[in-house]
Amino acid sequence: MKKSIKTLKEERADIFTRMQTLRDKANSGEGWNSEEEGQFDDLSKQYDSRTNDIAREERWLEQQAAQNADHSRGDDNSGNDGRQNRGGDNNQPGPTTEETRALGLQAWACAASGREVSDEQRAAAENCGYRLGAPEIGLNFRTNYAKVKKEWRAQSTTATEGGDTIPEGFVNNLERAMLDFGGIREVSQVLRTASGNDLPWPTVDDTGNAAVIIAENTADGEQDVVTGAVTFNAYKYTSRIVRVSAELLQDSAFDFAAVLGSLLGERIGRGTAAHFATGTGTGQPRGVSIGGNTTTAAANNAVSGDDLIDLMHAVDVAYRRSSSTRFAMNDATLASVRKLKDGQGQYLWQPSLQAGDPGQILGQPITVANDLADIGSTTRSVVFGDFSKYIVRDVAGMRMKRLVERYAEFDQEAFVVYSRHDGDRIQDSALRTLVHPV
User: Fold this and answer.
1) Do the strands 325-329 and 364-368 form a parallel or antiparallel pair, or are they unpaired?
2) Which pLDDT score, from 0 to 100, does residue 51 have?
3) Given a cut of 50, is residue 158 above it in pLDDT?
4) CA distances for 230 relative to 72, 203, 281, 309, 330, angstroms
5) Pairwise CA distance, residues 242 & 109, whole Å
6) Helix 34-74 vs helix 5-25: angle between axes, to the nearest 10 degrees?
7) What is the mean pLDDT of the segment spanning 391-416?
8) Whole-angstrom Cα Rg for the chain
9) Which residues are CB-contacts of 27 (< 8 A; sequence separation ≥ 6)?
10) Which phi and psi angles does 124 have, rounded to 5°?
11) Pair 252, 122: CB distance under 8 Å
């Protein structure tokens, strides 16, 4: 039987209590024996499992609420079957419900190859303003998800043809999939621009200068402020081609928009997440772990508690006070870090009661970014600092193209999404990377 969120949270709270009991017993002076360590590790895994279950159920409830809200907005009680005017000179009717928008997208996907488009799909396409013969439609980023730390829009953007009526299920799933693979994206500042022109970002670091005392009637000296700039580019990413059979395209019961959005979003998410973590900065974004200031670990095959303390205190306290300050590492490194203990045998890792949160180490939150390097000779395994000083740039206006003839012999159509992104630090001193020796 499926468990409710309330039940899952109660079970997780019970697990946490049992973990706390083991910790308190060990910290009282008795220390840890091998059996207790095994029990704690098992409970930790159960805790994580319940957390993942809760996050999944809460996410489903959010999606369900959004879907219900879409349908509610579609019924405007105006006697026009819920159609809303999109405004503008053409005075075309706008979309009514999420289902209508999905059917319209399905009609666009089928039309160019001469496949049968039902009356219902054609009417939905007309209602949404889709031009069935168009080989390409624009997709705008739609939602500022709570998981994104902060999002800026450099200037207002307008939807390209069809972009304002793309089903929420498509774009939301595309963006959500990008977030699922983008540990760094989740905690960075996201800048969205209407065009892909080079974007210089002025920078200044005056933390080395301070006021001084001078005597009365003494001429003051000068201290220049050194400025710089980080230039954000717009690297073009492709989801690569996804083929869809005619049967799926024509089946109205198949949620074409949501599934295709997830597939393409995962591909874009995987590609950009890798570069936001470890990109070289040459012909691709510069990853958060690349360049900047580094701290050398004591060993090439491990991360110690002392390493993490040194890494943390190598970042100026002004940045450590930021709400965006945290550790970032991949899941394998986190597994090693969670086993670290202090001199009294107490685990340094502190479990969290927040759903989806991997907990804290040394009082600092942790972000899992699986594209960061594993622990090993010369690798960069852990990043610490103020992640608001890492900027992810999205160029608004993803494009989805439909390829009709290429796979006609298989009775398939193909789709591909193109998007442009960049990422870089705007303040190297705000972030520090743990580098392992040879």
Assistant:
1) parallel
2) 82
3) no
4) 45, 7, 11, 29, 27
5) 13
6) 160
7) 85
8) 26
9) 344, 345, 346
10) -65, -40
11) no
CA–CA dist 291, 240 (Å, integer): 30
Report the length, in residues, of the chain: 438
Structure tokens at 356: 């989806």
| pLDDT tens-digit series, residues 177-224 | 666 666 898 899 988 888 889 999 988 877 778 898 999 989 988 888
Taking residues 358-363, report their average pLDDT. Answer: 88
The answer to whether residues 171 and 196 touch, using CB atoms and an 8 Å cutoff, is no
Write out the two tokens for 253: 């019961």
Nearest to 12 by CA among 352, 331, 348: 352
Q: Tell me what pLDDT residue 167 has.
A: 52
Unique residue bearing structure tokens 């927040």: 354
CA distance 347 to 23: 8
Q: What is the dihedral of CA 138, 143, 145, 148, to 10 degrees?
A: 60
What distance in Å separates the CA atoms of residue 141 and residue 399, rounded to the nearest whole number? Answer: 11
pTM beyond 0.70: the answer is no
pLDDT averaged over every residue in the chain? 79
Q: What is the separation, in whole angstroms, between the first and last Cα of the chain? A: 52
Q: How far apart are CA 297 and CA 431, in angstroms?
A: 16
